[in-house]
Design brief:
single chain; alpha+beta; di-copper center containing domain from catechol oxidase; two-stranded antiparallel ribbon
Length: 219
Amino acid sequence: MLDGSSTSLSGNGVFIPNRSDVVLSSPGVASLYLKPGLGGGCIYNGPFKNHTVNLGPVSSGTTGVDGGLGYNPRCLSRDINPYTAARFLTWSDVLFIMSKTDIYDFQMNLQGIPGIGIGAHGGGHYTVGNDMSDLFSSPNDPSFFVHHGQVDRVWTIWQWLDPVNRTYALAQTNTYLNSPPSANTTLNDTVQLGFAGGEIKEIGQLMSVVDGDFCYIYV
């Protein structure tokens, strides 16, 4: 998928040497340090080697125009990182997540527990690196959609292991890690898709891949 061939999503970025570790910090917990990957610069092969992105960077250390939210045409860059993949993204990691029987434990281990790890979700972002590791501009990278398809697949398979108790299970609040503090999420809370378009939906309408608006399965 990322080998740089004509049928891939392109490969790595140009290697940039002598870079510092990526430091991930959360209030009240120890920082996580990730080694740099094997790229760091503009993608140089495959279908997206000349792809231009216009948003960001926002949260990846080098802030773009208007805090990263302004018009900033630039190349798509990657820093593919086998060290991060081996640390957070193995089959054992995914099976450990799937072994959780409670939605809170499943969710926290998939997303990553601050100060301990970045989970398989964060692991996918930081394995590809650069734009993909930027919270706001990660959808610039086509691999974002493949990765999030897999995140949805893991959640869906977890639901199917106990559909009665898991399909509509929720945990935590309306803000990530309750920062800033907010109310507990309910199935009646709404999701606004913004510039992606579409109607405002209740969360309960979006929990199953075979009920409501959706009709698809994973194999």
